[in-house]
Amino acid sequence: MNHSSQLRAELILVLVTIIAAFGWIFSKEALAGMPPLFFMGVRFLVAGFVLLLVGVRYFHHLKWRDIKGAILMGAVFGLAMMAWIKGLDEATNLGVGAFINSLGVILVPVLARFLFAERPSKNIWVALPVAVVGLGFLALSNGIALEWGQVYFFIAALLFALQFNLLTRMSSRLPVLVLTTIQLLTAGVLHLSVSPLIETIPHAISTPILGWFLASALIATSLRFLLQTYGQSLTPASHAAVIMNLEPVWTALAAAIWFGEQMSTMQMIGCSLIFVAMLVSKWSHIQAFVRRR
User: Fold this and answer.
1) CB–CB of 74/183 below 8 Å?
2) Which residue of 4, 50, 146, 279 has the smallest Cβ count within 10 Å?
3) Other CB atoms within 10 Å distance of the CB of residue 116
4) How far apart are CA 248 and CA 245, in angstroms?
5) Above 80 in pLDDT, residue 172?
6) 94-101 and 3-30 are packed helices; what angle lies between their axes, rounded to 10 degrees?
7) CA 140 to the chain's CA centroid
8) Most confident of 74-88, 102-116, 152-166
């Protein structure tokens, strides 16, 4: 791969992290006029159908065994997003929530160790206690207790780590676009199935809320996944892993600008420790990234 192609891929992935960060803002604004699960269900169905139309040629000759596997991952992804959207709905600070959610990066190899007997790198065992201390600082900032929103984000991080482990075992059997589309459609169906049981479905949606919904579905979901798939296809996985760590940083900055959020000293220390833990967990990838510069 030549230098210009690699640079373009890395810039695309940086853009993906920025879009993902603004997705938190779009979603938070949409929740002002839509119940959480209903919002996510419709969002995923719209985004999934957009990707289906874009990549319809990749859906030929699919095997039912592979489709079932993708549906299973979509169900896990749907549960993770249920926890995420509940966290977003109840969170008082999006930046803090973004860093807690990013713990999934560290938990991926930990779950792989217990579920699939894979031996994680030594960096993970260094990163894990740092992350725990970071969570401790976030808990202490609320009087030795995590907010419910933060608890939901942590549950989402666990489920995202599980989904990522399943994804790595399935991605070689299906095109990434197909896998993503099936996951989004499955998650959308799951959310819309549960929504009427616990939420009141609105009879009408105001124009501003509809605008935030469309931005969330088309920009933060469909466009993001298309760019992410394209960018990851042009750069080594180690580079992508390092760049994707930027999402919680952009989210915190976006929340500070858009909502005027501020972190307490304890929260800043906690988030900084979690970010350090993320970097430590990806240290070998960072070294590979630097060597190729």
Assistant:
1) yes
2) 4
3) 11
4) 7
5) no
6) 130
7) 26
8) 74-88
